[in-house]
Amino acid sequence: MDTDLAERSETAKRPRGSGGATRMRQAAMRQRFLAVLVLFVAIFIYFSLTQSRFFTSADLDALMTSAAVLWMVAIGLTFVMLTGGFDLSLGSLLALCGIALGKLMAGSGVPFAYAIAITLAFGLAVGAVGNGFLIGKLGLPFLVVTLGTLTLYGGLVDLWSKSYTTQLLSPALTALAFNHAAGLPIPAWIMLGVFLAALYLQRSTYFGRDVYAVGGSADAARLSGVRVGRTLLAVYALAGLLAALAGVIQDARIGAASPLVGAQVIFGAAAAVLLGGTSFAGGIGGVGGTAIGVAFLATLQQGLSISGVQDYWQQIITGVILIVVVLLDRIQHGGLESIGLGRLRVRRAPAESPPVVTDGS
């Protein structure tokens, strides 16, 4: 068993391309992670010094509570991107699970704990069947599948909710969002628990090693005995589970099940994952970097809000950050040639051949 674990570990560490190129990409990802960490500390200090309301207990509570939704989606998306995939549907699935929780609690009177358990199971099942089975077992392209499920889940949200917001009058749900334990908001403890569980999955299990192996090279992973289809199914199921948890926290924060939530969360999650050093190509990165990426974006958005910056400017800034990190990821993975700049060289005219002298004989 230990030998099998070692073999899979070696497979996970052997992504596509030459060893030297891989090490250079990993070093570049670490540099990106460190740069984002420095920026996070810098903006935190800046807003603390310039905004009197920023570094207060109430604001820090609001920061951690608001970051919890993005945190859950980004952690799930990290595992998907480590396999070289992407899930466009997570925002719609978040809203769908939020509506499901509302129907269970307000419509059917299901007790709080049972309603949350059913909602989480629902998100896991939808992620496994809606995306995981189609991508992992049937081999359909992840972009096409998740674009289709994005539209499908969005339609189901409107159908199920009839485009109305349902108020949730539940003291337990309110406590989940705003109560404290050991001096921290409960969402912060949930974030920590999810992070530690994800870190354990990533570093200490067969599943984590298989995820890296599939992201490095699906064909090589399959030849080494990794069940690629099962790994992909499990990854999308995990992303669905965490999207459901994000939907629960979102309902608790606003005290209602709304069909209007989740539309922009996938863009922030993608920016956080890329900022943290996970590559679009798969096989490089992890949840540690994603945590820093989420902290950076959440702090930036909170500071801008306190500074009076309008929401649309915050969206513009997030969009610019996403474009920049995608460009950097492309360059770090494939060099300047990958964006067409490596070919911009001045071509020299070929030297003329000297004339051939004959003796006329």
Written overview of the protein:
- The protein has 361 residues and is mostly helical.
- The chain is 72% helix and 2% strand.
- The protein has 14 helices and 4 strands.
- The chain has helices at 2-12, 19-50, 57-82, 90-107, 112-137, 142-161, 171-178, 186-204, 206-216, 218-223, 228-254, 265-275, 287-306, 311-334, and strands at 166-167, 180-181, 184-185, 256-257.
- The strands form 2 sheets. A two-stranded antiparallel sheet has the order 1-4.
Q: Would you identify the regions where 5 or more consecutive residues have pLDDT less than 50?
A: 1-18
- CA radius of gyration: 24 Å
Q: What percent of the residues sit in helical stretches (DSSP H or I)?
A: over 70%
Beta content: under 5%
Distance between the termini: 84 Å
Envelope shape: globular
Helix/strand/pairing category: mainly alpha
* Number of DSSP strand runs: 4
How are the strands of the largest sheet arranged? Answer: 1-4
Number of distinct helices = 14
Largest sheet: 2 strands, antiparallel
